[in-house]
Design goal:
Chain lengths: 322, 563
């Protein structure tokens, strides 16, 4: 099995390439857009190409039997990559595509969402792009095996959004025990479990055409996640956030902080240590009673999930050791 | 979903397998256990989402001795969330001895053991948001809490026993959204229960009325009365019928009797000697932010040895009204009395009358330490007024290392301490409640002996002296009357209808389908504040009801009904 990881320079991509490199039965090729990471130093073959360019994709798929698409980026980058991959696949002898999507495709829904649930309609540009990619995968040549993986919120060492950002907000006492605002379910998945799921999706038989939601099947509440994380980080006593404080964040501070963040990106000052914004959408998430995970998914993909306490301890170690 | 009965058609009949009357900590905790459980639940609440005077007025009643008991519309709230709208948040479990038959205390028998309730304390603590169910000062806070009195190891008291605090959580604000989202729970506001109609052993229906004149009938397989202890007695006594001429569940003339609060007061002068060691009577926070505090809990073997009730003592700041304390902050709070709610002002200030001279002496205290007073108030705004998890109470160290003692003692069951029906009627035509609260000589003896035991322990240690007026104990313990807000024992649990109103499962004797979730069922009052145990007992009742009502549960046999 020769596997091309498209988007190998990203957070999940890098980890996936390194894990695949350890497996005897797999030869891994890192697909990069730019030389952000040098895998060749680790003895891993790398191919640098523009994944949304059909000819570039065609060349990169030479000799590849399996492809995993973990490209993140603009609407165009994501849909262009999936389109190029699906189109080039037949000609190049590819047998299986593992496409990374996201549970964001189910925006505007609540309750339990299994992997075969119909996709939602609303959501942001990211959700729309991911839905479009999923449709392209669904319409691929039936001879080609396709598997869609939809990670929920990825946490763990290295995870910026759901580990590093959360830790900063806990330290600043801007998140903590959210009371009634934090009763929603934390649909988290440890980054190593995402990687294991991708490996499972490459290897498992009889899963072609299926989509799997990757989230803890027994999610804890956001309050539990936030408080337990604060505890292992040593940010105690955990601050109880009042609804007044949360309103101040979402209605007053979020807009200027978001604008400052955008300006910083424009001015190429991403490293500027600006405070994180707690936008109304971000705050709403903590109250959402939506559940994606089911235990059957991880049995099928042969993944032993990382227990939350272990995941949180690893996360805290990563944060505290800088 | 949450609805208002005011929007219903007059004469509407609602049906559900389970009807809970009263949406306070008990009713809400109980209803939460049935979310998505497979049966529909009606949660009937007399009040609205927030306080409204016209609803609260329905709590007005008569008090036999106003010096001994607060007006009946104080300390309890007729609104969604019930009295959790005003509680102080103190969460303490009952002790094993509280459940024992103590031969020196008449009526001290619980038909269930401590373990039956204790197993529900962890979940009750979680619902009350009072932290881990750890009540030991050595284990509650990482690295153990600092000692209350350094070097002092009392023989008669446990000083590592803790009280922990809820936010204090308003159950409607905290859990209303979950009830609102639940598809099988229907909360009906503005629904005042006016009658429980039973025919023989079976509760057929309950009648509700709004203040706008709309009548509702609820039919259910099982009813739970989850109101406060005074309202439980009023509703049962007012629900008279052919089969129940003296009120529902009152064949043994037990309803409304053994009404207990707590015996409490601030008393004595505990003077530490110079160099006696560090004294700490404040709070510490556990990892989750919940506040914990040590107190001196009278050991059970001492209760047995001296044949007295349960009690706890806390170190306390000097009495506010006496300006001799010299503390600006205490004087500022004393002078701010008009801005403090009745429930909190009552015990802070006692009944002392204000005079110009007194006012001036307190003003001088403030002027003597203006910066300290201002700093304290600013911190208070931060940790109490604006905080979602509130600093539980005023902690001020006295200038001269002289503390008073805050005493909270068990009130023992006294059949002559009663909640009855009064002569007056409320706006819905229901009899108002009449409270005749009485205490026993042994109640005062519990305090007297506790003080003597502490005095002896301190004398043996040598670091402090406790002095008090032996003849003034009763006056001090009854100065503010019955401890407000703790309404216990009016439908006590017993082994038989002669001994109580409800059985060990909280089911009303002589009925097959009416249970009570309230401090009304406690046969004894413990040293502990009742809310945590009210919640734990509601959770225990939820387990019984699930076994009985959920699909597949067996029907009750006639034998069980008549048991």
């Amino acid at each position: 099995m020769k596997v091309l990881v498209i988007g190998a320079g990203g957070f999940v991509g890098q980890r996936l390439v390194r894990r695949l490199a350890q497996l005897d039965e797999i030869t891994v090729v890192a697909g990069l857009r730019r030389q952000r990471v040098d895998f060749s130093a680790e003895g891993i073959e790398q191919r640098i190409f523009d994944a949304s360019d059909p000819s570039g994709m065609k060349a990169a798929l030479q000799g590849i039997t399996h492809a995993v698409n973990v490209v993140m980026g603009s609407h165009q980058a994501m849909t262009g990559t999936t389109a190029a991959l699906v189109n080039a696949a037949g000609a190049q002898g590819l047998t299986r595509i593992v496409e990374f999507s996201s549970t964001a495709v189910f925006s505007d829904t609540s309750g339990y969402i299994p992997g075969n649930a119909p996709l939602g309609a609303g959501g942001d540009a990211y959700a729309r792009a991911k839905r479009e990619c999923e449709r392209m995968i669904g319409a691929a040549d039936p001879a080609l095996e396709t598997v869609i993986l939809r990670p929920a919120l990825i946490y763990g060492p290295g995870a910026e959004q759901w580990t590093a950002r959360i830790a900063r907000l806990l330290r600043q006492r801007r998140l903590g025990d959210l009371g009634a605002m934090g009763d929603g379910l934390a649909n988290l998945i440890h980054v190593e479990d995402v990687v294991s799921s991708a490996i499972g999706a490459l290897k498992a038989t009889g899963i072609s055409g299926k989509a799997f939601n990757l989230a803890n099947p027994a999610p804890v509440s956001w309050n539990t996640y936030l408080m337990d994380f604060a505890r292992v980080l040593g940010y105690t006593p955990v601050h109880r956030v009042s609804s007044r404080q949360m309103k101040l964040e979402t209605k007053l501070l979020a807009v200027p902080l978001k604008i400052a963040e955008k300006l910083a990106v424009k001015a190429r000052l991403q490293r500027l240590p600006l405070p994180d914004a707690i936008t109304p959408g971000f705050a709403r998430l903590f109250g959402q009673e939506i559940r994606f995970g089911d235990a059957g998914t991880f049995q099928t993909l042969n993944v032993a999930l990382t227990p939350l306490d272990v995941g949180l301890e690893q996360s805290a170690r990563w944060i505290l050791q800088g | 979903m949450i609805e208002t009965a005011k929007a219903f058609q007059n004469g509407t009949v609602l049906e559900a397998p389970l009807c809970i009357i009263g949406a306070g900590p008990a009713g809400i905790s109980l209803a939460l256990q049935f979310i998505d459980a497979g049966i529909d639940v009606l949660l009937m609440e007399a009040g609205e989402r927030e306080h409204h005077d016209e609803n609260q007025t329905l709590y007005v009643g008569e008090v036999a001795n106003e010096a001994l008991h607060s007006p009946l519309d104080q300390y309890r709230h007729r609104q969604f969330g019930g009295s959790s709208a005003t509680w102080g948040g103190r969460c303490i479990p009952f002790d094993p001895i509280d459940f024992e038959t103590r031969d020196w205390i008449s009526g001290s028998c619980w038909p269930i053991g401590h373990g039956e309730v204790a197993k529900h304390y962890p979940q009750a603590m979680a619902l009350a948001e009072a932290g881990d169910p750890i009540f030991d000062a050595e284990a509650a806070v990482e690295g153990a809490m600092c000692p209350m009195i350094e070097g002092f190891s009392p023989s008669s008291f446990d000083d590592s026993s803790l009280e922990r605090f809820s936010c204090p959580t308003n159950f409607a604000h905290r859990y209303g959204h979950r009830l609102e989202a639940a598809r099988n729970i229907r909360v009906v506001l503005n629904a005042n229960c006016v009658a429980l109609d039973a025919e023989g052993a079976v509760m057929r229906h309950a009648e509700f009325r709004t203040l706008t004149g709309i009548s509702l009938t609820v039919k259910a397989r099982h009813f739970v009365l989850a109101t406060g202890g005074i309202e439980v007695a009023r509703l049962m006594l007012a629900s008279r019928g052919k089969a129940h001429p003296n009120g529902l569940g009152n064949a043994g003339d037990q309803v409304g009797r053994t009404y207990m609060c707590h015996i409490a007061g601030t008393f004595g002068a505990l003077q530490f000697k110079p160099g006696a060691g560090r004294v700490w009577h404040g709070y510490e926070q556990a990892w989750d932010g919940s506040y914990c505090r040590r107190r001196l809990a009278l050991r059970p073997e001492k209760q047995r040895e001296h044949r007295i009730g349960n009690a706890v003592l806390r170190l306390h700041h000097p009495r506010l009204p006496d300006p001799a304390h010299g503390r600006g902050i205490l004087s500022a709070i004393f002078l701010a009395k008009p801005f403090i709610s009745y429930e909190y002002a009552k015990r802070l200030h006692g009944g002392d009358a204000m005079s110009a001279g007194l006012w001036l002496r307190h003003a001088l205290n403030i002027m003597r330490e203006p910066l300290g007073t201002a700093g304290f108030l600013l911190n208070w705004i931060n940790v109490r007024s604006l905080a979602a998890r509130k600093f539980p109470s005023l902690i001020v160290s006295p200038r001269n290392d002289c503390y008073s003692l805050d005493i909270h003692a068990e009130q023992l069951p006294n059949p002559d301490s009663r909640v009855m029906l009064g002569t007056g009627r409320d706006a819905l035509g229901m009899h108002q409640a009449r409270v005749d609260w009485r205490y026993l000589p042994l109640d005062i003896e519990t305090v007297r002996k506790s003080l003597a035991l502490l005095k002896a322990d301190l004398a043996a240690w040598g670091g402090a002296d406790l002095s008090y007026d032996e003849t003034g104990i009763e006056a001090a313990m009854t100065r503010d009357g019955a401890y407000g807000g703790h309404h216990i024992g009016t439908a006590r649990m017993g082994v038989s209808p002669e001994a109580g109103v409800v059985d060990a499962d909280c089911r009303v004797f002589g009925t097959s389908n009416l249970s009570i979730a309230s401090a009304a069922v406690f046969p004894t009052s413990s040293q502990a504040n009742p809310t945590l145990t009210i919640i734990a007992m509601a959770l225990r009742l939820a387990d019984h009801l699930k076994a009985q009502l959920l699909p597949g549960a067996p029907e009750l046999s006639t034998e069980e009904i008549n048991r």
